[in-house]
């Protein structure tokens, strides 16, 4: 008996919609004019200052500065990632992700860990260590506190955004 060689294929609407929406890349220039956008750019610029000021010294001899470096680099990379997500409006293409909650958790954790890192940084800066590193470490401590304030502001705006979404 001969067999039938008929093959039936189906396509889902998800793959069709995904390929159609990914071909156009949106760009939201207005995000940089909002307070959260300005805070995010400030976090990136000053966060870069924090870790480059420390990286230019013998920070690896002191574990406290290693912690500050970890926090500064980790949140710098994630902040750049989130800026790209907001600038390209990727969050509109992935509605399954609760972006307001993700933003609140990200900014809240960045605020808490940066506050700890800034305190550790400031308490580790002494003239007794190495005189030529003192100014870099003192400056990194100052900028770490400024970045902490920026993350605190973004945490507030993320909370307001999350709160307005949960009340609807």
UniProtKB/TrEMBL annotation:
Going by the UniProt record, its keywords in alphabetical order are: Membrane, Transmembrane, Transmembrane helix
Q: What's the superkingdom here?
A: Eukaryota
How does the record say this protein sits in the membrane?
Answer: Multi-pass membrane protein
Q: What InterPro entries does the record tag this protein with?
A: MAL (IPR013295), Marvel (IPR008253), MARVEL-CKLF_proteins (IPR050578)
Residue ranges spanning the membrane: these are: 31-54, 60-85, 97-117, 137-159
Q: Which Pfam families match?
A: MARVEL (PF01284)
- Where does it localize? Membrane
This protein's GO cellular component annotations are: membrane
One GO term under biological process is: myelination
Q: Can you give the residue ranges of the MARVEL domain?
A: 31-163
GO molecular function per UniProt: structural constituent of myelin sheath
Q: Which PANTHER family match?
A: CKLF-LIKE MARVEL TRANSMEMBRANE DOMAIN-CONTAINING PROTEIN 8, MARVEL-CONTAINING POTENTIAL LIPID RAFT-ASSOCIATED PROTEIN
* Name the record gives this protein: CKLF8 protein
Originating organism: Pomatorhinus ruficollis
């Amino acid at each position: 008996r001969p067999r039938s060689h008929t093959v039936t294929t189906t396509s889902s609407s998800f793959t069709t919609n995904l390929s159609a929406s990914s071909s156009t890349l949106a760009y939201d220039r207005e995000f940089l004019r909002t307070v959260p956008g300005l805070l995010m750019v400030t976090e990136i610029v000053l966060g870069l200052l924090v870790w480059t000021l420390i990286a230019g010294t013998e920070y690896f001899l002191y574990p406290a500065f290693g912690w500050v470096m970890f926090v500064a680099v980790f949140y710098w990379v994630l902040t750049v990632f989130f800026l790209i997500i907001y600038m390209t409006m990727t969050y509109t293409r992935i509605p399954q992700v609760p972006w307001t909650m993700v933003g609140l958790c990200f900014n809240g954790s960045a605020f808490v860990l940066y506050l700890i890192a800034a305190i550790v940084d400031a308490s580790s800066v002494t003239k007794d260590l190495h005189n030529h590193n003192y100014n870099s470490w003192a400056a990194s401590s100052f900028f770490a506190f400024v970045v902490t304030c920026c993350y605190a502001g973004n945490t507030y705006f993320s909370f307001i955004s999350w709160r307005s979404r949960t009340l609807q």
